[in-house]
Each structure stands twice: as C-alpha cells, then as structure tokens.
Design a protein that fits this description.
This protein is of the alpha+beta class. The protein has helices at 3-14, 25-38, 49-65, 82-98, and strands spanning 17-20, 69-72, 74-75, 78-79. The chain contains four helices and four strands; from the N terminus they run H-E-H-H-E-E-E-H.
Length: 99
C-alpha cells in the first residue's frame, strides 16, 4: 500500500460516524409498533424514558467530545430510508478520501 493510499485510509479511521435517531415521538411510535408486530412489551430500559433520554444525551456528548460526525436517521419527523442514510455516509467517506 502506498503512503498516499495509507494516508487516505487513516483519515477515514480518524473520522468516526455516529448514526443516531434523536428521541422524538417517532422513536416512541416505532417502539409501540414493534411491540404490536412482535406481540412483546418494551424491556425495562425501553420503558424508562428518562433513562433513554440520558443515554442519547450521553452519546451526543461523546460524539461531540471525540469530534465524530453525526448522521441523523430522521428528517422532518419521519425515518430516512436506508438508501438515503447510506448515500450520506458514502458521500462523506468519498469526500474524506479526496482530502
């Protein structure tokens, strides 16, 4: 592997991506739909909204402190498609390789 190629790969490894879904009515709706579809109930952690909120806030702080790039999974109150999220990740990685 050439030095230039190695440098490009190293830049990607230094840029960690956090794909996230902020706590919104959307996540609550998705959990309830899953419960109905699978005939299950939320586990002890999923039932604790304050705990879930704290976990999301902590993940956000870690991402900020570590300079991770955050990629949101929702847009305008709806889930983005897998293909749309993939395209954003692909675009960002491609830009890193060009740098």
């Amino acid at each position: 592997m050439s030095a230039n190629s190695w440098d490009s790969h190293l830049r990607i490894f230094q840029n960690i991506f956090q794909v996230h879904l902020s706590y919104t009515e959307l996540t609550e709706k998705m959990m309830r739909e899953r419960e109905q579809a699978t005939n299950t109930k939320a586990d002890i952690h999923e039932q604790d909204e304050a705990y879930l909120r704290a976990c999301r806030e902590n993940a956000k702080k870690v991402a900020e402190r570590c300079s991770w790039q955050r990629i949101g999974c929702s847009k305008d109150g709806a889930m983005r498609t897998v293909e749309d999220i993939h395209e954003e990740i692909y675009h960002r990685v491609t830009e890193l390789l060009k740098a």
